[in-house]
Amino acid sequence: MGTISKALDLLNFFSRRTPEIGLGEFVRLSGRDKATVYRHLVELEANGFLEQDARSRAYRLGPAVLRLAGVREATHPVRSLLRPIVEQLARDTGELAHVSLLQGRMLSPICHYDPHLHGTRVNFNEAEMLPLHATSSGVAVLAFSPRGLLDKVLAGKLKAYSPHTITDPQTLTDTVRKAAAQGFSQMGRGFDEEVTSQAAPVFDTTGEAIGAISVALPMVRAEAGKLRTIAAELVAAANAASHLLGGSRPAVGQPALDRALLDRAAKP
Amino acid sequence: MGTISKALDLLNFFSRRTPEIGLGEFVRLSGRDKATVYRHLVELEANGFLEQDARSRAYRLGPAVLRLAGVREATHPVRSLLRPIVEQLARDTGELAHVSLLQGRMLSPICHYDPHLHGTRVNFNEAEMLPLHATSSGVAVLAFSPRGLLDKVLAGKLKAYSPHTITDPQTLTDTVRKAAAQGFSQMGRGFDEEVTSQAAPVFDTTGEAIGAISVALPMVRAEAGKLRTIAAELVAAANAASHLLGGSRPAVGQPALDRALLDRAAKP
DNA sequence: AAAGTCGGTTCATTATTTAAACCGACGGTA
DNA sequence: TACCGTCGGTTTAAATAATGAACCGACTTT
Q: What is the DSSP code string of A66-121?
C-alpha cells in the first residue's frame, strides 16, 4: 500500500456520525503511527481535502472535495441525472433507495433517498463502501460485468459482514447467475442482519455495468408481494437510469456472465 | 512537496474543458516523470478518485469525490445552503455570481451560477483555484481574516495574472484596508483583463471569514451605477449567507484588519 | 519501414516515509 | 501542589518506498 493510498484512506473514516476526527482518533482508527498520520493529515489539509477546526483542532473534509465533485458533475453528470430517479423510486416503493457506482472491487454510494414513511428505517451510511459479494447492488453489478470481476472477487476472501453473508464461492456464483438470468438481484441479511435489499444494474455507453440502483428495507417489512412490486419498479428505474446515461441493458437471458461461463467452460 | 501532494495535484488539471486526461498529457501538464505520474494515477484510481475510460484509457474524476462531497454536505452543508443565495443573487443582478471558500492561501470555488442574460459572459472555471491578491473574493477574505493571512500573502510573490494585477504590497494593503472599511471589495481586471468583480466575505460560527460571495461581469458592462446596485445586493446576500451558517459579520468599521494593523503598529 | 504517437513496465539509485521517543499544554484528581 | 493521562505536535536515525532513465509492444502517420 503506497503512501497515497494510506493518506486517502484516512478520508474514509468520515461519516455522517463522525464528521470531525482528531489526530488521536485517526491514529486509533487507522492503526498507524502518529507522526505518519499527522504528516498525512497536514498534506491532505494543504491540498484542501481536509480542513482543521480552529477551536477543536479536529479535521473535517475540506472544500476540495466539493470543487472536484462539481467538476465531475459538470462534465460527467451521473449523480445529478440519477438522483431524481432514485428519489422517485424511493417514493414509489416507500423504502430507501440508493445508487452506487463500481469502484475497484467495492461500490461507492453516490446518492440515496429515504421517504421515511415507516417507524423503522434502514440505517444507510453514505460514506461506507459496499462490498460486491454481500450486497444486492454488488451482485447486480457482478452479474453484468466482464467475468474478470467475479473471478477477482472469488479469488479473494469473502468477508462475512453478518451470519448470513455469502462466503461460499459456489453459492455466490449461483446467486450471481440467478441475478444475471432475472435481470435483478436480491440479498437478504447479507450485509446487515436486519435488512434485505434488491438491486438492478445501471449501464452507460460502454455497455458494461457501472453500478446499481437498489431498494433496501427492514426484514420486518419484507413480504413476498411487496418485494415483487419493488423489483418491478426497481428494474424500470434502472432501465430509465441506463437510458439517461446513454447506455442500455443487455437482453435478459444473454447477460455477460453467461457468456463468461461459456467461455470458461470452453477453455480446457 | 510530498508524494501525496504531487498525486493530489494531478486532480487539479481537470476542468470543464478538460474532463478527461491521458497519461501523456498528465506528464506534459505536471512536468514530472512518466513512471511517477503513472503510479500516482494508478493509486488515485485504486482509491476511486479517478476512473479510467475503458476505450480511450484516459482518466476522469472518480466516484470517490462524489461520495466524500456527499458526506461533507450531509454534515457541514455549506454548499447546499449557499447555492440558493448565489443563484438568487445572480438572477437579481443579472450577472455571474459564485461562492469560494478559503483553502490555505487560495480560494476554492464551490458553486456558481450565471443567468446568461447577455451576449458576452464571464468565463468562470469552477475547477480553477483563485488567488487571494488578484481577485475581489480574495481581497474580501483578506480584509476579514486574522492578520497572519495577509502577512503570509505579502511575504510571498504577488503573481501577475494580468497587466492590472496588484503586485505591489502597499497597494494590496491599501485595497484590503478599503475593503475592510466598506465591507466589500472590488477588483477590476486583476485576474482577467476583461472582467471586473466585487465580493463580500462570508462568516461561520468561528467569526472568521471562511470565504466570499462574488459577482463578476465583463468590463464592457461595468458601469458605476450598476456596480453600486450590485454591491448592495452582494452585501445583503453575503450577510444572509453568514446568517445561514450561524455566523455574522463583524461591525463595519472595526474589522479584523484594523485591529491587526493597530496591533502591528503597537509592537515596536 | 521508419519515426511518431500512445499506455505501460523495469530496475538500480536515492530520497522520502516511517516509528520510537520526546515535548509542552491541558484537564481532572488526589 | 503534584500527579496522571491525553491531547496535538515535533524530532531522530533507520528502512522502506518513490523515483526516472531506458525499454516495450501496439498503433498511426509518413
A: HHHHHHHHHHS-HHHHHHHHHHHHHHHHTSEEEEEEEETTEEEEEEEE----SSS-
